[in-house]
Amino acid sequence: MEFTDPFELTVPPGAGRLGEAPFWSPGTAVTWTYRRFDFDIDHVEVRRPMRVIEDGPDGAVLWMPGGTAVTDTRLVGWEGFNAHDVPLDVRFRPRAEAPGRYEVPAVWQGHGVLKIAPTHAPFSVWVLVKPAEATDRPAVRGGSTDAHRPTGTDGPTDGAGRGESPVKLEWYINLETVHRRTAEAVYTSDLILDITFPLPEEPLHAIDGSLNSRGAVFKDVHEITAAGEYGYWPREWTDIVRTNGALVLDRLEEFRWAFDAKWERLALELAGFGAGAARGESRPGGTGERPGVGPAGTEEGTTEEPLLLGPALIVADNPAGEDVRAEADHRADRNGAAAPVRVDGNGAATSANEISAGQREHRRIPAGCYTRPDSR
């Protein structure tokens, strides 16, 4: 069984594929671009500026630090809501009936994300560097929350306690279309369904060095099911994405390069933390603070080579929020006022008993796991 893209992605003329020359040089600034299957209708896309860390026949590795200015999308008529908070029977209506989309400015929260995109594969692997809260256990290879759900950018953020709490790393598989590339950008489509590894007792990386899929949990199962049930896209596309996800887990060892534990150490270094930070050790200097970034991308008050290889366009140092793929994570009340909320997603599960059978089953996601809600 081979991977299959559910649809052909609209890309600029002459776009090639990852793994094919000419390759980007380390340090090159490129834009990670998400386009939906209906891009030709409204020409709305998600754009994330990133720095190339590595590029070659195996694939590309790119870094984006927290505070990076990005572009996200919202739904017309639901301006006060993040798309994830819009009712499913509205969000996943057939395209002719669904609300239009428009672009909005956004900021990436957390300490940063390292994206590893293997060649000819419909997914990217994310290593998320996140602040660990006081109640979190330090974990390098576990403890997933809804890793790329949005967090408020226009609401209050609290950096207090950053020095006292260790950072944590999370591994995340984002199911996408096979990546295309130009000299300036990566093009793919986010296919809703994702894979997390939230169980500390079943981490992605086993002690013996093998890759372990037993603790894998699919995220946003209800959303991808709704996409087929409500007619947002053909039901067979949902089945294709599910099959791709199961195939990724069955073939983890074939993609060992993308899941190499060395990316954890690199992500910590790029975020400005020592390799021991995820184990609760203090950074040099004992402050736990990431140095400020000057206009030229250099750290203020130091002549050492900076570890932060993010884009020059960084608008905020906002360590308190989750890593996000959107501008804000908040709900709006009926008067349009925004109230920041914490989104737990799947939560940081500590036991297999806390995860339903429907969530844990990765080889065959039950079609009945989603119940259509009353129309709202």
From TrEMBL:
<feature type="region of interest" description="Disordered">
    <location>
        <begin position="319"/>
        <end position="376"/>
    </location>
</feature>
<dbReference type="InterPro" id="IPR035930">
    <property type="entry name" value="FomD-like_sf"/>
</dbReference>
<feature type="region of interest" description="Disordered">
    <location>
        <begin position="137"/>
        <end position="163"/>
    </location>
</feature>
<feature type="compositionally biased region" description="Low complexity">
    <location>
        <begin position="296"/>
        <end position="306"/>
    </location>
</feature>
<protein>
    <recommendedName>
        <fullName>DUF402 domain-containing protein</fullName>
    </recommendedName>
</protein>
<feature type="compositionally biased region" description="Gly residues">
    <location>
        <begin position="276"/>
        <end position="295"/>
    </location>
</feature>
<feature type="compositionally biased region" description="Basic and acidic residues">
    <location>
        <begin position="322"/>
        <end position="334"/>
    </location>
</feature>
<feature type="region of interest" description="Disordered">
    <location>
        <begin position="276"/>
        <end position="306"/>
    </location>
</feature>
